[in-house]
Hints:
Layout: E1 2-3, H1 5-8, E2 18-24, H2 30-42, E3 47-53, H3 54-63, H4 65-72, E4 75-76, H5 81-97, H6 99-115, H7 135-147, H8 153-159, H9 167-189, H10 198-208, H11 213-241, H12 245-248, E5 254-257, E6 260-263, E7 266-269, H13 277-290, H14 296-302, H15 314-325, H16 330-339, H17 342-346, H18 350-353, H19 367-383, H20 392-398, H21 403-412, H22 423-437, H23 442-453, H24 457-464, H25 470-480, H26 483-500, H27 507-525, H28 532-543, H29 545-553, H30 557-562, H31 565-575, E8 581-586, E9 592-599, H32 604-615, E10 617-626, E11 631-640, H33 648-662, H34 669-679, E12 688-692, E13 700-707, H35 712-722, E14 726-735, E15 738-746, H36 756-770
Parallel strand pairs: 2-3
Antiparallel strand pairs: 1-2, 1-4, 5-6, 6-7, 8-9, 9-11, 10-11, 10-14, 12-13, 13-15, 14-15
Amino acid sequence: MCALGSYARRELCPGSDIDVLLLHERRAGTALTEALWYPLWDAGFVLGHATRTVKEAVALADRDLDALTALLDARPVAGDASLVTDVVRRVRDLAPRRRRRLIEQLADAASRRVGRPGPISEMLEPDLKDGAGGLRDVQALRWAGFALGPPGGVDELVARGFLRPGDPALLDEVNALLLDVRVALHRVTGRARDLLALQEQDAVAAAVGAASADALVRDLARAARDVAWVAADAWDRLRAAEQGPVGRVVRADRALAPDVVLRDGRVAVAADPPIDAGLALRVAVAAVTEDVPIDRRTLERLTATAPPEEPWPADQRDAFLTVLRAGARAVPVFEALDHVGVLGRLLPEWDHVRSLPQRNAYHRFTVDRHLLEAVAQAAALLDGDPDGNDGFDAVVARECEQPSVLLLAALLHDMAKGYDGDHATNGAATARVVATRLGQSERVAGTLAWLVEDHLSLAETATRRDLTDPAVVARVAARAQDRERLRLLYLLTIADSRATGPAAWNASKAALVRELYVRADAALRGTADTGEDERRAELDTLLGRDAAARFLDELPPSYAHAFAPGDIVHHVELFAHDEPVVEWTPLDDGALRCTIVDTDRPGLLATAAAALTLAGLDIRDAHAFTRRDGRALEVFTGTDRFTRLEDERGREVATRRLLDALAGASELGDELAAAVERYRRGAPTELTVVVDLDSSARATVVEVHGRDEIGLLARLARVIAGEGFDVDVAKVATMGERVVDVFYVREHDGTKPVNRERLDRLRDAIVARTT
């Protein structure tokens, strides 16, 4: 009997599988194998088991990479040890004969780990085993050593020049740290887990004696960054060695810049030049231009780089901006410079954000990698569509007059995270310091500081405010001051959101941000509203001028801004019905719209929202309008949370339930409360309520911040109705596990509430009745 995997390496964690192989000279009977396996199953072990002859085991190893690498680590645990010794000897003899295939497959797997699940050093929820820089990277290097011949392992990689003499000790140290954390994770969760999830990090940190979860994640990041760097360099060298005679031809150095050459497919410094910031930046420019890595020995020499003189010489500033403009190609170059401390010499503020966690599920990356991703996204916007099929965003980017300011803003926008106070406000001061250090003009420094301070404003306004309200658009335009600054802010918003993760950017949010940009840009150009005249002319054509005027006169002014002419014509048809109307419309982005026409009354929005929530609609936006005759129009947009509404039958069931609720035939409060408890994670959400009297001329804006929970919109709407207010517009902005529900509230007579005492009571009631 031999042990395989972590059992063979003596690296078992509490939740690890017990991998064993029963080796035999002739086929073992079922009774024998069951006698061996059943006691382990009965004891609760997760058993990975197989029964083979030595010949069968070696044949499988020749066909299958996992089988081969498993047997490289095998050790005897019971029975005839000579069988295990024999199979290990044969497999280790086999590995050099399959050298090229083995190294290629191991190197490809390592490359895939960089893409998914991603580097441990950059992920907020790192994968300890399969993340780049994790346990599998350490193991794979050892296996690659056996492909080179005896004695194999990492020592053989050192002997052949693929690893440096100090690398084995580093790998052992990081391996021990990763195992300690993995053991603690299994104990904390009671399960076999490799993903260090946000909700487990505090407990795991305490279990391993770390000062805090953030300290643990940063320690892991530093250690894994070293492993990932060593592994990437080793795989590059191993692959080059396997290219055959062509790959081993020694070519003459090709000059790329003063004292910088291309040598064996890597950027290197020539001879023995003075080490300074100018050389480091020339190396970086060469690496992004040639799209090749920097030689490891060159990087080690660059550790002596001193900070540039201030302000930076023009050639060094231009070189730095050239690297930023390379976009995605700049990411590995900056990471290489960061690994040896050069990036911190060029940009001292970088040391603060290196491997800095962001303690929410909204972000995917640590702060440093997020900033590099934002630069890459900004550069991609500036590049436009390579096929020439430019969309709206590419057209805006092509009109950008200060692309370098956009790239710097992308690099700096979150640089003040982790300090006390607002990171955007603090970051503006940092951006001004960096701009001055780089030798930028006062005008550029001012624009850069404004972009960093306001980098969240466009997305927050688009998702939390009623874009049909002229006051909202006017405030954005006034803040931007000119079209170029607004253009830069729009592009930065896209780059930042895309770099954050899928929760931060989708078709719906993109459309809202685009709409706000278009409206604000029109205001800066001096037009009241982009396309407004055309919209009204189209509506007059469809309905007739007098009919259109009469219909719009019956509704609040904001109604005409909220819908396209075709929607308004359809609403005219819906209002022609005397009975309540419920209509479903699938939208192009996969969302659903539910339109309701009924007699207005207190609590109508709350009742409709509750019924739709229980039907499975995850509401992200709601508009409510009341005509002078007392008939109300409510329009909800959301996603089909449980795929209950994807077909007509499901929507018919939801419609009947909604009509019953609107007619008072069913009370949904208890059912909604039960659903909240069923889907709630942890304690009830703690809400923060902000009352804003300034953002709108027609209504008071009430923002409610808290953890996302099912039915929150309906519960909040019920409280608002109970306090004697009407909701004109409701918007839901979700950021990972956090949500901001925004309500435009008015008095029953349509006026804007301004009584501070009543609004304070509303705020207190929301907190008291929904938590």
